Amino acid sequence: MGSPTRNGVAVQRNASGADPLASPEYFRDPYPLLAAVRSGGPVQRIRTGNGRTTWLVTGWAEARAALADARLSKDTARYFADRPSNRNLAPAVSRTLLATDPPDHGRLRKLAMTAFTPAAVARLEPRIRVLAGELADALAERAEADLVEGFAVPLPIAVISELLGIPEPDRAAVRRWSDELFAAAAPDTVDRASHALSGYLTRLIADRRAAPGDDVLSGLIAARDDGDRLSEPELVSLAALLVVAGHETTANLIGNGMVTLLRDDALRARLRADLALLPAAVEEFLRHDGPLTVATFRYATEPLVLGGATIAAGDVVQVAPGAANRDPARFDAPDSVRLGRAGGHLSFGHGPHHCLGAALARVEARIAFEVLLTRWTDIRPAGHGPDAVEWRRTRLMRGPARLPVTFVP
Ligand code: HEM
């Protein structure tokens, strides 16, 4: 990679000028490349696939500061309102809690929190254990199984569907729309999926309004704060965000954690012998190889200096939790897995947009590892072994595409 200078900072690009974060080496192991970018400074300009440049924040302290900086906006619609766009995304998908700035954000978030409390999540724990057990039973019938398709992906979908009260027969369609929204499919497909998902959720909310249940969606419909409540479009967009934000991320946390476990016989044995270590293991898996590598995005509403870099109004800033979590200025031996580390990873973000589903994701992952470690005497990598894992080819997220295993009964 050469490093021509612009605004006094390096523009990272490889010889062909292509996106350095979309190479086969990056998909296999993004951390050496992210460390190389960070070695040039904690905030660097990088070239993206579409030929534009964005600021990549790779230092832990700078990433944490950026995530809580009010000059960096999440409100793309307001910010880019004057730019031509040929997209026809449903507002429910483009105008979510995650794309709203204070003070509107605080109001929406407070209402959402009333139905999404840690206590509500704790009540789900027995049901999550049943769902995980059923998936493990189905895997146990096969000589060799894929943990991604057979466990890591379906578990979070089943959980969020139960949470929202999405009936079983509708779940495959909901998963397809959500995948299409995430997979950076062709713009037409993404637009169509956004309308299909928001149309579906609008009907589901109407049903739930007529006949409330004890699901989170009914709770959100009833949620009140000082007489305030969520409007119909706000409800639809919150439900859409819960569907989309929670499942691929959690699936990748389970998948990446299992890759680490399959590579480390001693760690598997240690966790199996002492399940009380699982919460610490989940935290370390989130830090060491979390689901979001170089998300998330913000837009500078005014010029600012971050980590020595001068960011202009209108510039896009991309915070890289995957890089910040391995910053040697924050974590000793950041590339190794050590349970019980202090330091605080940024995998769930930080500041006003800190992940609303963090408690749920933690419970799901803990139960997933508990079930996978205790259902059999052992679980071993099949085929070419965990060092030859086939990773998903996405820049923003990290997770195995397949994880073939065999079971020792
Ligand atoms: C926000 C990560 C699971 C719902 C976020 C953010 C991150 C994140 C980094 C902040 C984005 C930013 O600041 O720009 C993750 C990871 C997960 C996970 C790594 C799994 C391991 C979930 C689940 C749900 C969820 C299970 C819900 C069911 C949300 C929502 C927001 C959010 C609603 C927006 C919060 C706001 O804007 O105030 N998540 N998430 N996430 N996440 Fe998660």
UniProtKB/TrEMBL annotation:
Protein keywords: Heme, Iron, Metal-binding, Monooxygenase, Oxidoreductase
Annotated region described as Disordered, given as residue ranges: 1-23
Listed Pfam families: p450
InterPro entries hit by this protein: Cyt_P450, Cyt_P450_B, Cyt_P450_CS, Cyt_P450_sf
SUPFAM superfamilies (UniProt xref): Cytochrome P450 (SSF48264)
Highest taxon in the source lineage: Bacteria
UniProt family annotation: Belongs to the cytochrome P450 family.
Protein name: Cytochrome P450
Organism: Streptomyces siderophoricus
